[in-house]
Amino acid sequence: MPEIIQHFSLLGWALVVLCFFLISRAIGGRSKIKLTGLGLHANYLGYKKFSVAFDSKVNSNQLRNYRIEYYLQNTDDPKVVITGKSRSMSTSKKGRNKETLLIDKKLIKAGKWQLVVEVKQDRHPINLFFALFPVTQKITKEFTL
Description:
This protein is α+β, with helices and mostly antiparallel strands. It is about 25% helix and about 45% strand. It is built from 4 helices and 8 strands; from the N terminus they run H-H-E-E-H-E-E-E-E-E-H-E. The chain has helices at about 1-5, 10-30, 60-65, 130, and strands spanning about 35-45, 45-55, 65-75, 80-85, 85-90, 95-105, 110-120, 135-145. The strands form 2 sheets. Strands 3, 4, 5, 7 and 8 form a 5-stranded antiparallel beta sheet that branches. A 3-stranded antiparallel beta sheet has the order 1-2-6, with no helix packed on it. It is elongated, with a radius of gyration of 20 Å.
């Protein structure tokens, strides 16, 4: 057996590692977060206050590999898009959670708007394929503002 290892080329080892990462990404590539709902709440200090509810199967230490992104798009004029700041989900905990999303009221004109929230797992302590092929989950809801 040691002779095989000695004669195994660098390219062979690279292929073994690549296959390991691909299998790991395929098996472990299911999202550990399930988005369950979006809501609109009372205005907060000049901002429209939205919330996103989700269930997490992992603790806050593992949630640092997840990022939440959101934007509000005018359905009457789809070129108008207001993007919120992307952030880590590391402050959430295992179980049922709720995140608050704030968008400046001055940027919103009356009409129908679509809120799109996306959660991405694009980091992994070992496997770089999560950066190339992130695990994503998206939820959308239309609001009249």
